[in-house]
Amino acid sequence: MFDGPAPLVFAAFTRPELLVRWYGARGWRLVECEVDLRVGGRWRFVSAGPGGERMGQSGVYQQVEPARRLICTELFDDQSYPGETLVAHEFTELVGRTTVTTTLRYATAEGRDTVLRYPMARGVGESFARLADLLHQTSTTRGEAP
């Protein structure tokens, strides 16, 4: 749950100038961020890590409903498990706070099990803490979507 209206939270998930300010675990940052926000449009992120590591991921938008729903595929450049993942984000606002529910559907059970062994929960938590800070800064300095 984030302090901010759904249109602002959705913008943070879809606008490159906002994504580069929060996306990634501590020590990681987006160095490439391309978003063609339309059904059939492609997205591509490349992150740089603390030791100079690079991680690329990309996909195609399947459904785009501003401030409500965002569904896309995801595939990493150096993926360690088979197939594309389907990523669905649902944005639900109540009294100026937005709950984001993210569902990941892996192509195989093997892929899901592989990812569950990674420190993904830590990384997502750190990334979402950065998003919460960005939303707080935005609401206190501008009072509206950037």
Describe this structure as you would to a colleague.
- There is one protein chain.
- The chain has 146 residues and is of the alpha+beta class.
- 29% of the residues lie in helices and 38% in strands.
- The protein has a seven-stranded antiparallel β-sheet, covered by helices on one side.
- β3 and β4 form a beta hairpin.
- It is globular, with a radius of gyration of 15 Å.
- The model has no long low-confidence stretch (mean pLDDT 92).
Q: What are the key terms here?
A:
single chain, 146 residues, alpha+beta, 38% strand
Question: Would you spell out the secondary-structure blueprint of this structure?
Answer:
Elements (H helix, E strand, L loop, with lengths): L1 E2 L2 H9 L1 H4 L9 E7 L6 E7 L5 E12 L3 E8 L8 E10 L2 E9 L3 H8 L3 H22 L5
Antiparallel strand pairs: 1-7, 2-3, 3-4, 4-5, 5-6, 6-7
